[in-house]
User: Fold this.
Amino acid sequence: MASRYRTVLLFGAPGAGKGTQGKILGNIPGFYHLSCGDVFRNIDINSPLGKLFYEHSSRGELVPDEPTVQMWNQHMHARTILSIYKPKEDLLILDGIPRNEHQAQLLDKHIKVLKIIHLVCRDKEKMIERLRRRALKENRLDDAREEVIRHRWSVYERETYPVLSQYPAQIVSEVDAVGSPAAILANILHHLVPVQEAHFANRLSGESAGVH
Ligand code: ADP
Assistant:
């Protein structure tokens, strides 16, 4: 098997803050952040995949697995060729994929999951309120209607949450999704820095990593 991308999954319900945290992490050297939803949103809406995305996301449904994973794969390939993502140096932070057990199986040959950050929110109504605010700010169709937001949540509970149990419990770290972005970031880094140090050479000091 070709070497798999060393990966961290940002996991959590819609509105838990995966995108916010992922974007910050992606600005730190040695981390490469990829949000599957962002890749979809950047596709030409008139292309076949753009239309498929529109049809599903506007109803709060998942896009079918095969085109999703294929798009993800092409994106990773392109970023690697352009050296925007450097698999030997960067920890891949995936947000929004895998979103069901089948996607997790399809991705398994491409990624080696070293850690899962589970952003936990016990207050569902608070998360739904966050999504409503984001819909106004970012003009997102999938969160513009209350019923679509609630449907997204039920899809998460039914299809995405069970993905967690496909990975060993010891690689899952729970982080409280409620708090200031800086406090949540500090908690996430507390779990991620040791992963990065164990698996990657330190680019600044030139020290090599213990484990590969
Ligand atoms: P959020 O982080 O708020 O849950 P995303 O930006 O990750 O939202 O996703 C928005 C929409 O994009 C989803 O509701 C779904 O329609 C589509 N989507 C994103 N990632 C996937 C995926 N891995 N599989 C299928 N559909 C996806």
User: Anything to note?
Assistant: Strands lie at 5-12, 31-35, 91-95, 111-120, 172-176. The radius of gyration is 17 Å.
